[in-house]
């Protein structure tokens, strides 16, 4: 039997927890030009963040060759 080898890995994704916006709402207004669409809170929908980057997460692994 040959030599045995083990590898331990640890990875961290998005290490600085950057929650950068990936996409925004581009809804400006209706076709009649009455103005911008407003959300439930009264603020315009245009430019609101729709998605952000995933928060940081860690992944650990163990691999063996024998």
Task: Note down, in words, how this protein is organized.
With 66 residues, this protein is mainly β. It has one domain (5-65). 0% of the residues lie in helices and 39% in strands. It is built from no helices and four strands. The strands form two sheets. The chain has a two-stranded antiparallel sheet. The radius of gyration is 24 Å and the shape is rod-shaped. The model has no long low-confidence stretch (mean pLDDT 85).
Question: What topology emerges from the helices and strands here?
Answer:
Layout: E1 5-13, E2 21-24, E3 49-52, E4 57-65
Main sheet: which strands, in order across? Answer: 1-4
Strand content: 35-45%
- Please tell me what the overall shape is: rod-shaped
Span between termini: 8 Å
Key descriptive features of the protein:
66 residues, mainly beta, two-stranded antiparallel ribbon, 39% strand, rod-shaped
